[in-house]
Amino acid sequence: MDEVGELPLEVQPHLLRFLQDGSFLPLGETRPRVSNARIVAATNRDLERAVSDGRFREDLFHRLNVLSIRIPPLRERPEDVPLLFEHFLGEAARSEGLAPPSPDPAALARLAAYPWPGNVRELQNAARSALVASHPDKVIRERHLPARVLSRARGQEQGRAFASRLREAERSILEGALKEAGGNLSAAARTLGLTRQGLFAKLKRLGMK
Question: What is the spatial distance between Cα 85 and Cα 124, in angstroms, rounded to a whole number?
Fold first, then answer.
């Protein structure tokens, strides 16, 4: 069940009853039927907040929430964007009876820099748009990507470049303090005004041994 968070309040008791005893009443029938089907439900809404707001039944939420799997949005896994884009590109090309074009590295980098507020569906639409824009070329270039992707990705790239420079500066400061302290964490931490645990956490975050 996709987007279960959009289920109207008047329909929610019917789903709850099914989850409780497996019974349901088909439209136009008077005798209930029973099924042992399992329900896999998905939503992009915060159902706990929806329960607090009175938009989703609490008992139904607990019935559904037996095993939860969180799938991170695309903005949290940019390394997956090129793979998914090529997958959707292949799907779109097959539906049009075309050979899928190959995205060049610059286009893939631009896609990975975009935050994808519309998540996977937006990426799927971007792949189809790029296929149409690039035809009959055999390579998808940056100019074939949707305008919104190009404009917002540039700002995102600048932000990432700034964050990268900050990380390098922080790494340089930590390396200097450790070298001065002869590798002694406690002495380096005192020099930096940090606790030993705080310094260790920074080293771990920056991937420094």
Answer: 7
Chain position carrying tokens 């884009």: 85
Dihedral angle over CA of 44, 45, 48, 54, nearest 10: -150
pLDDT one-digit tens code per residue, 37-82: 989 999 988 999 999 999 999 999 999 999 999 888 888 888 889 9
d(CA 150, CA 157): 10
Residues in the chain: 209
User: Which residue, among 141, 156, 144, 143, has the nearest Cα to 74 in the 3D structure?
Assistant: 156
Cite the DSSP H helix spans in 26-118.
47-52, 58-64, 81-95, 105-113
**Bridging pattern class, strands 139-140 and 102-103:** parallel
How deeply is 149 buried, as exposed, middle or buried, from its count of CB atoms within 10 A (0-12, 13-18, 19+)? buried
At residue 156 the predicted structure's pLDDT band, cuts being 50, 70 and 90, is: low
In the chain, the percentage of residues whose pLDDT exceeds 90 is 46
Domains of the chain: 4-64 (no CATH), 74-145 (1.10.8.60), 161-205 (1.10.10.60)
Q: What is the pTM of this model?
A: 0.58
In 125-184, where do the E strands start and end?
139-140
* pLDDT over 80 (residue 160): no
Note whether 164 and 158 are within 8 A (CB): no
